[in-house]
Design brief:
- It is a single chain.
- A four-stranded mixed sheet has the order 1-2-10-9, covered by helices on one side. A two-stranded antiparallel ribbon has the order 3-4.
- The protein is built from eleven helices and ten strands.
- The chain folds into two domains: about 1-20 and about 125-190, no CATH class; about 25-115, no CATH class.
- β9 and β10 form a beta hairpin.
- The protein starts with a strand and ends with a helix.
- The longest helix is centred in the C-terminal third of the chain and has 16 residues, at about 175-190.
- The chain is α+β, with helices and mostly antiparallel strands.
- The protein has helices spanning about 10-15, 20-25, 40-50, 50-55, 60-70, 105-110, 120-125, 145-155, 160-165, 165-170, 175-190, and strands at about 1-5, 5-10, 75, 80, 85, 90, 95, 100-105, 125-130, 135-140.
C-alpha cells in the first residue's frame, strides 16, 4: 500500500494495466453486479435535479422503473445507489446503435445538456474506494467482465492510475494525483 494524504492506495493501481475496450465488453459494468452504482448524497440530488437532461435517452422501461423506485435507492447493504432494471441493469443506461451499453447521464454531459458527467464511482471503475473515518482505501476491483480492458491496457502498456487520471483528479485533486505519479516513479525505480 502507498499512503498519500488520507488515502491508502493498493499497489495494483500502479502495477496493473487497463484500458476499457467497449467493443469487446459491450459496457458490461453497467449490467453486472448485485447493486446499482454507488452514489454520494450530493450525486443523488444532482441526478434528480438534472433528470430531464438525460431522460430522452432512456428506454421507456427504464423511465418507468425510475418513476417507480426513485432517482436513487438504498440497496441491501444500506448504500445509496442507482436503481436497477430487472435487478441487473443500471436504470440510467441504454444500448447504442452498436449494442454497447452507455450512460444516459454521460451522454447528456457530452452533449452539453448538464455539467454533471456521471457518478464518480462509475467514472473511477474498476477502482473502488472504501471510505473509512481516517482514510480512504483505493483498490482495484478485478472482474472477469473487464478481461478485455486488462488485455487492451497491457497491449498499450497503460497503468491503471494513468487510464483513470481524470476521475482520480476529480475525486482527490491535481496535487494528490501529482503525488501518485511521483510514487509510481519511485516504485518503477525500486526506491
Amino acid at each position: 500500500m502507498i499512503e498519500i494524504g488520507r488515502t491508502l492506495i493498493s499497489l495494483d493501481i500502479f502495477e496493473k494495466h487497463f484500458l476499457c475496450d467497449l467493443l469487446k465488453c459491450k459496457g458490461a459494468c453497467c449490467i453486472e453486479g448485485d447493486s446499482g452504482a454507488p452514489l454520494t448524497e450530493e450525486e443523488a440530488k444532482t441526478i434528480e435535479k438534472n433528470y430531464a437532461a438525460y431522460r430522452a435517452y432512456l428506454p421507456k422501461k427504464h423511465i418507468r422503473e425510475i418513476e417507480k423506485q426513485g432517482f436513487s435507492v438504498i440497496d441491501s447493504d444500506g448504500d445509496l445507489v442507482t436503481p436497477l432494471v430487472n435487478n441487473r441493469q443500471c436504470a440510467y443506461s441504454f444500448y447504442d446503435e452498436n449494442g454497447i451499453l452507455k450512460c444516459s447521464i454521460e451522454k447528456a454531459y457530452f452533449e452539453r445538456k448538464t455539467t454533471f458527467r456521471k457518478p464518480v464511482s462509475c467514472h473511477l471503475f474498476p477502482i473502488r474506494i472504501t471510505e473509512y473515518k481516517r482514510f480512504d482505501a483505493v483498490n482495484y476491483q478485478e472482474l472477469d467482465i473487464c478481461k478485455p480492458g486488462r488485455q487492451c491496457g497491457f497491449s498499450n502498456q497503460l497503468p491503471l492510475y494513468k487510464f483513470l487520471k481524470e476521475p482520480l483528479i476529480r475525486k482527490y485533486g491535481e496535487e494528490w494525483y501529482n503525488e501518485v505519479e511521483i510514487a509510481a516513479k519511485h516504485l518503477q525505480q525500486g526506491t
